[in-house]
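C-alpha cells incoming
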C-alpha cells in the first residue's frame, strides 16, 4: 500500500511541475510575475491603450 501511494504522489508532482513549467514562459514573456519593466505593458493604462489600438485595428 505504501508503494502505491508514493507512485501516485510522484506522478501527480511530475504532471503538476510539467504544467507549471509549460505555462510559465508565456507569462514571463508578457510581463506577468516579474517586477522589472522588461517585456509587455507595465501598467493598466498601457494595457488599456494597447487593447484600444487592437480594437480599432480589428474594426478597419
Amino acid at each position: 500500500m505504501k508503494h502505491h501511494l508514493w507512485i501516485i504522489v510522484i506522478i501527480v508532482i511530475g504532471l503538476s511541475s510539467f504544467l507549471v513549467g509549460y505555462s510559465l514562459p508565456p507569462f514571463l514573456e508578457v510581463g506577468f510575475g516579474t517586477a522589472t519593466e522588461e517585456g509587455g505593458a507595465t501598467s493598466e493604462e498601457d494595457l488599456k491603450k494597447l487593447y484600444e489600438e487592437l480594437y480599432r485595428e480589428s474594426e478597419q
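note: The chain is about 75% helix and 0% strand.
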